[in-house]
């Protein structure tokens, strides 16, 4: 059974940093590209970042370019999202996803506020 479990969210002040993790199980993690999405209240789910199976290719949404970094540890079956210079508009529930299995995690809340 494919399972994705996010962690690392929380409350942070503007300009701060957080590191999200996504523990994957039930599939060959190293064989698949992975993505991070986010959904703010009242808004559609938005693609934040993409990483290829080996980690050699990454892409980012325009709103997070230069501030967020996606990475992965294929030995630990874990996906990461390093978020720096956080802004209030980054407030959302963040999800990791495997597109091929159409699998989503339960999400982790990130709140950026003074």
What is the string of helix and strand elements?
A: EEEEEEEEEEE
Principal-axes geometry comes out as globular
How far apart, in Å, are the first and last alpha carbons? 40 Å
Using the CA coordinates, give the radius of gyration. Answer: 13 Å
Which secondary-structure class do the elements indicate? mainly beta
Q: Roughly how much helix do the residues carry, as a percent range?
A: under 10%
**Number of separate strands:** 11
Please mark out the parts with pLDDT under 50 across 5 or more consecutive residues, or reply none.
none
Strand content is over 45%
Please, how many helices? 0
Biggest sheet: strands, sense, closure? 7 strands, mixed
Mean pLDDT rating: 97
Question: Would you mind describing this structure in some detail?
Answer:
With 114 residues, this protein is mainly β. 0% of the residues lie in helices and 50% in strands. The chain has no helices and eleven strands. Strands 2, 4, 5, 6, 9, 10 and 11 form a seven-stranded mixed sheet that branches.
Short description, anyone?
The protein has 114 residues and is mainly β. It has strands spanning 3-7, 10-12, 18-25, 34-39, 46-51, 58-60, 68-73, 78-83, 92-98, 103-104, 108-112.
SSE blueprint:
Blueprint: E1 3-7, E2 10-12, E3 18-25, E4 34-39, E5 46-51, E6 58-60, E7 68-73, E8 78-83, E9 92-98, E10 103-104, E11 108-112
Parallel strand pairs: 2-11
Antiparallel strand pairs: 1-3, 3-8, 4-5, 4-9, 5-6, 7-8, 9-10, 9-11
């Amino acid at each position: 059974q494919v399972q994705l479990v996010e962690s690392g969210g929380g409350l942070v002040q503007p300009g701060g940093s957080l590191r999200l993790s996504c523990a994957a199980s039930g599939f060959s993690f190293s064989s698949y590209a992975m993505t991070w999405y986010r959904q703010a209240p009242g808004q559609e789910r938005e693609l934040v970042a993409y990483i290829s199976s080996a980690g050699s290719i990454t892409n980012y949404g325009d709103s997070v370019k230069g501030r967020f970094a996606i990475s992965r540890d294929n030995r630990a079956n874990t996906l990461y999202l390093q978020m720096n210079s956080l802004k209030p508009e980054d407030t959302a529930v963040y999800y990791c996803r495997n597109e091929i299995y159409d699998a989503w995690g339960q999400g982790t809340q990130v709140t950026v506020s003074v």
